[in-house]
From TrEMBL:
Signal peptide residues on this chain, from the entry's feature table: none
Principal location listed in the UniProt entry: membrane
Keywords per UniProt: Amino-acid transport, ATP-binding, Cell membrane, Membrane, Nucleotide-binding, Transport
One Pfam family, short name: ABC_tran
Membrane topology, record value: Peripheral membrane protein
EC assignment: 7.4.2.1
Ranges where the ABC transporter domain occurs: 6-240
Protein name: ABC-type polar-amino-acid transporter
Family in the record: Belongs to the ABC transporter superfamily.
Keyword Membrane (UniProt): yes
InterPro entries per UniProt: AAA+_ATPase (IPR003593), ABC_ATPase_HisP-typ (IPR030679), ABC_transporter-like_ATP-bd (IPR003439), ABC_transporter-like_CS (IPR017871), MetN_ABC_transporter-like (IPR050086), P-loop_NTPase (IPR027417)
């Protein structure tokens, strides 16, 4: 039986006069991988940022694991801890080793002790194939390795849900594959994932559903074969034709 891990209802977001999200309804079940595609400026990042309350919705509700995180009475820090986020820019601390990048948030935010944080860090570095880089500094790593560290850092917090905002867009093409392989592994482990990406091969092979956004609305939401392979809407067709 599946239950929605993420539920977005009637979500609107404006920045001043700019009405960016214009009524988004979306459900993502536990263990489901949903890729969000769409043109630049369509509101994909804003949607992700509303799901973990980096942006405050102007209207509507967001539920994560059954808790309404848009409820003003909810403990927002506790809610956010259940959601891991990976950005285009990896944002690692340059003066800390890879291990320290993973242990610092565990200790500060979760209050874990030194030994436990180190154990969880090692576990998650192994998960992304970077156990041997534990003592390295970020600047000595490739962009792809830095992004895998950023993924491990998010995983070390034990999230129920992982959000990815164009995680491979800043990488040289030859480094993209390793990051996508880590994400594919996470999907196979059953992680609930919402992934904004332009990687159509990844979307076709890994996503359970693809959501096409344009102009702040969901235009199309269906299986990868349907949305990418046989889009019903002209806007989707137009977007996909420009990616080829
Ligand atoms: P996408 O990720 O699909 O490219 P975004 O969600 O980043 O789209 O942006 C959608 C629109 O929202 C754009 O017009 C952008 O300028 C605007 N926007 C996004 N974030 C902010 C912000 N913090 N302040 C003002 N405008 C913003
Ligand atoms: Mg974006």
């Amino acid at each position: 039986m599946s239950r929605p891990e993420i539920r977005v209802q009637g979500l609107h977001k404006s920045f001043g006069d700019n009405h960016v999200l214009r009524g988004i309804d979306l459900e993502i079940d536990q263990g489901e991988v949903v890729c969000v595609i769409g043109p630049s400026g369509s509101g994909k990042s804003t949607l992700l940022r509303c799901v973990n309350l980096l942006e405050e919705p102007s209207e509507g509700q967001v539920f994560v694991g059954g808790t309404e995180i848009t409820d003003p009475d909810v403990d927002i820090d506790a809610a956010r801890r259940r959601i891991g986020m990976v950005f285009q820019q990896f944002n690692l601390f340059p003066h800390l080793t890879v291990t320290e990048n993973l242990t610092l948030p565990q200790r500060r935010v979760l209050g874990r002790g030194r030994a436990e944080a180190a154990r969880v860090a090692a576990e998650n570095l192994a998960r992304v194939g970077l156990a041997e880089k534990a003592a390295a500094y970020p600047a000595s790593l490739s962009g792809g390795q830095q992004q895998r560290v950023a993924i491990a850092r998010a995983l070390a917090m034990g999230p129920d849900v992982m959000l990815f905002d164009e995680p491979t867009s800043a990488l040289d093409p030859e480094l993209v594959g390793d990051v996508l392989a880590v994400m594919r592994g996470l999907a196979e482990e059953g992680m609930t994932m919402m992934v904004v990406t332009h990687e159509m091969t990844f979307a076709r092979e890994v996503a359970d559903r693809v959501v096409f956004m344009d102009g702040g609305v969901v235009v199309e939401d269906g299986s990868p074969d349907q949305v990418i392979g046989a889009p019903r809407h002209e806007r989707t067709r137009h977007f996909l034709s420009r990616l080829l």
